[in-house]
Every structure is written in C-alpha cells, then in structure tokens.
C-alpha cells in the first residue's frame, strides 16, 4: 500500500526494542474508502513506512482488527452478491436445472462427471448431499454463466430418456460389443504391468483409469492381444497385477506425488489433483455403505 501521509500520520510504529507498547500491525491493499473506514474505526492507528503497515495500539488490537476485517469481507460479499443478482436479472439463465433461492442458485441435474467437474470450478459452490443439489451464491454468477452451456449440455446427455435412447441405438453395433468386452475386462480387476517395473503392494498408485491398490502379482503373462485391445502402452513382457479399490483412509494417508507421470508410465504415485476426486468418491462410497447398515 502506498499513500502520502501528513507528518502526524507518518509516525513510526514503536518497535519492541524502542517501546514495549502493545499493539498489532495490519496491512491491506490501498483504497481511499477503506483507509477512511479504517481511520474512523482506529483513530489512534499510525502508518509505519518501515513496516509498510498500520500500527494499532492496545492489548486487544489484534482481536479488534480481526473483527473489522471480517466485517469488510462480509460487506464485500454482500456487494458481490448484489452485483451477481443484478447480472442475473439483466441476463438470466433460463433452465429447468436451475432455481433461484434466497442466497443464490440451486442446481439439480442428472449425474454427470462433466457437470460435477464444472460446478466444482465455480467459486464458493457447494454440494448438499441431503437435498442432492448444488448451491452457488449470487457472487459467483459470472463464472456460473460462463460454464453453464457445458453444464446443461452434459446434464441433458445424462437424462434417463436420452441415455436409454443412445443405448438402444448402440445395441448390436460393433461399438456396443466393444463396450461390453471392455466392461467385462474391467470387472476382472487386473492390469498388465512391466515385469521389471512393479508397483508397491498395499498402497494406492495411479494407473490409466484411476487410483487402485495392487494386492497380487501371480507372474502370469498377459496376452499381448488383450493388452493391445484394452490397455494403453506397450505389450511386451507384461504380467497381470490384481487390484482393489482403495479405502478413504488409504487415500488420506498417502503422500501425493510431486511431479506428473512420465508419458509412457504404466503406474505412478497419484498427484494431489488425482487424489482429491478419488477421496471424494471414497468418502461417498463409505457414507453409502454406512447408510445401508443402519
């Protein structure tokens, strides 16, 4: 923050060596109105050129500053919400998937990974597991508006009627047969691994279609034709590794990998970007499992 001060305003904040007067420093981006609000709230505050901060004297200065900053944030949020509400009134989203609420928007769509990924990128969005809806505050309208075409298109693709229609169209086609074969192969819970580069047992690792825990490697050679049909990468010297889905505890405890995988990697330590959705999915699985036992 840079600001021209009068001689009285430029008093240096007392240091611990020069003056033991209690107090606290605070700095914030310069804005004339914010400075005026601050000076009215803290008339004894003085600017320190050395620290590039305001010094507020008093033993309770830190708490008082915290309350003031919280009020500023609430005021900024209220202004942003009002701005977002006005933007919606001027250029509304007309969709059966979106309803207007008191504090923002309520969004309910058929499940779609694309829609979920897009909504997670909207600032301050949150999922309500009880009502099965997404809440988005008015302040996030511009970002929601930008992402809405992709959200709505993904939702429409996943309407039950649309999914049934596509399934009927695929029946008996080569694409349908390949999809069934791929699903059957996935249910075997096996994965071709290079014999000279085996993953650790009992800990989560990432492979081409997610994060798994390998439990056994029998030494059985993988059929190169099967590998070529259903798995990416090379087909030479591969053995079958059998895996299970990791638990939430395993996904929480593991340290994420620091670097992205090599282009030709068969398995790798999952990065934090891969762990976050995997943890959410595991948390959801365990919640559903607990609900079934009640």
Quickly describe the structure.
The protein has 294 residues and is α+β, with helices and mostly antiparallel strands. It has helices at residues 32-41, 61-90, 113-120, 141-157, 160-170, 174-187, 224-230, 248-253, 272-293; strands at 23-26, 46-48, 53-57, 98-100, 104-107, 126-128, 133-137, 190-194, 204-207, 210-221, 238-244. The protein folds into three domains: 1-91, no CATH class; 93-160, no CATH class; 175-293, no CATH class.
Describe the model.
- Helix 3 runs antiparallel to helix 4.
- It contains nine helices and eleven strands.
- The longest helix is centred in the N-terminal third of the chain and has 30 residues.
- With 294 residues, the protein is of the alpha+beta class.
- Helices cover 43% and strands 19% of the residues.
- The N terminus is likely disordered.
- The amount of helix comes to 40-55%
Strand order of the largest sheet: 4-5-7-6
Shape: extended
Number of domains: 3
What pattern of helices and strands is seen along the backbone?
EHEEHEEHEEHHHEEEHEHH
How many DSSP-defined strands?
A: 11
State the separation between the terminal residues, measured CA to CA.
57 Å
Region (Disordered): 1-29
Biased composition (Basic and acidic residues): 1-22
Protein name: HARP domain-containing protein
Organism: Rhizobium phaseoli
